[in-house]
Amino acid sequence: MTRGPAPKPNAQRRNVHEHAQELAPAAQPGRELPRVLGVTTGGAKRFWKTWSTSPQTVHWVETDWAELEITTKLVDEFFKGDTKLAGEIRQRVSKWGATVEDRNRLRIKLEEPENGSETGEPTDGAPETQISDEELYKLLAEK
Q1: 102 near 21, Cβ under 8 Å?
Q2: Taking the C-alpha atoms of 120, 122, 124 and 130 in order, what is their torsion angle to the nearest 10 degrees?
Q3: The domain containing residue 74 runs over which residues?
Q4: 104 occurs within a structural domain
Q5: SS3 64
Q6: I want to staple 79 with a disulfide (CB 3.0 to 4.6 A). Which of 34, 40, 43, 61 is the partner?
């Protein structure tokens, strides 16, 4: 004989958070990098492209885009050699769900792609990646 009331026939999970999000992993259309920011480094341009097309941007409003502009400017200064900005950049991108741990904390889940591989645009910007890698190597060699 069991103790307590019998379980309901259609038991529901009660620990699902009301603000949890499930996002499609597909890249979003994004926005163009504003020229008025004066971003010059390849690393900052790649940062803008990565974040502006990320799945999280589907829910962004103008204040989020303004925050991305400010953070991109900080990333530009980081790639120019101001490595003291690394902590500030990390704090800002964690609020958007940059890592798996950040997304878990924010209760953001990315849907699994059907074909088992990442979806999105193919990266045809190999020269831009090489430029930013060279910038990063140069930056790290100075320290």
Answers
A1: no
A2: 80
A3: 37-112+127-142
A4: yes
A5: helix
A6: 43
Alpha carbons 68 and 63: distance in angstroms, whole number = 9
Q: Provide the b/e sequence for 70-102 (b: ≥16 CB within 10 Å).
A: ebbbbbbbbbeeeeebeeebeebbeebbbeeee
pLDDT band at 91 (very low <50, low <70, confident <90, very high): very high
> What is the pTM assigned to this prediction?
0.68
Q: Which residues contact 132 (CB under 8 A, 6 or more apart)?
A: 41, 42, 43, 45, 46, 79
Residue 90 lies in a domain: yes
Domain-embedded: residue 2: no
Asked if residue 136 belongs to a domain, the reply is yes
pLDDT digits (tens, 9 = 90+) for 34-90: 999 999 999 999 999 999 999 888 888 999 999 999 999 999 999 999 999 999 999
Please state the separation of Cα 120 from the chain's center in Å: 14
Name the nearest CA neighbour of 93 among 82, 78, 113. Answer: 78
